[in-house]
Structures are given as structure tokens and as C-alpha cells.
From TrEMBL:
PROSITE patterns: GNAT. It comes from Chengkuizengella marina. CDD domains: NAT_SF. Residues 1-148 form the N-acetyltransferase domain. GO terms for molecular function: acyltransferase activity, transferring groups other than amino-acyl groups. Keywords: Acyltransferase, Transferase. This is N-acetyltransferase. Gene3D superfamilies: 3.40.630.30. It comes from the Bacteria.
Amino acid sequence: MIKKLDITREEVAREVLKIQLPSYKIEAEMIDFYDIPPLKDNVQTLQKCDEIFLGYYVGEQLAGAISYEIEASILTICRMIVHPDYFRRGIASALLNYLLDLNLEVKKMIVSTGRDNEPAKKLYQKFGFTEVADIEVVKDVFITKLQRNS
């Protein structure tokens, strides 16, 4: 089941953080860079962010989440989170499908991921995103920006 999350509620922010930290730790290991901003989040920073969160539940357990922002008809996917215990179960695909099915009035969607995060890049490409740029965020660490026009 997928539902909108109220990230301003402390218990919801805690629940998201419990899956976000292990999820992004895997990406950090994959790209050999541990200064990823989501790894620095805490309950308060999550509560204060302006992102819209959707959560994927397996029974009562939050297993994945996606967050996004919309500005000037551009939707930016800010976070794609799947707890490692739930990898390869189609949760990220289900979250992307759900987001796309919302038929939000946007001209394009953008997302960024570690350049060396091949599973994430393949996922986004499967949904019509194309690579538009590799950006060096710090010396020898690159993210890939992907875009999908609506």
C-alpha cells in the first residue's frame, strides 16, 4: 500500500529516517562517498523539509518512500528510499508508477543519483528518464542528472 506521509509528524519522520539511513548507506558504499546529504538528516531536518513524501508499506512496516518537490512546473524527485531488507521487490518501481499516475501538471521531471549507482540509473531509464549530465559535486565524485519530459 502506498500513501502520502505527513513528514511534519515526529513519529513519521522517525519512521522515514529508519529506512533512509540504511538505504543511503548502501548508495554511499556503492559510489564510495559518505557525505551524501540524506545521511546527515535527523528527525528535525526531515520535519522541516518542504518535500512531499509517499510511503510504501508492507503490512504495517514502512519499506520505502519517495519524496518530491514541484517548482515552476518542474518536479524534482528528492529521495528514493527502499530499506535494504526490501531491495529487489519492485518497491521503487511501484513508487515511481504511483507518482507518475498522479498526473501532476508538470513539464518535466528530474532526478539525480550517484553516477556509479547503476541500479538506480537503470530504474529511472526504465521509466523514460534520460541522462542529461554528470556533475562533479566534489573532487572525483559525480552525480548523474536524469530528466523525463511530460
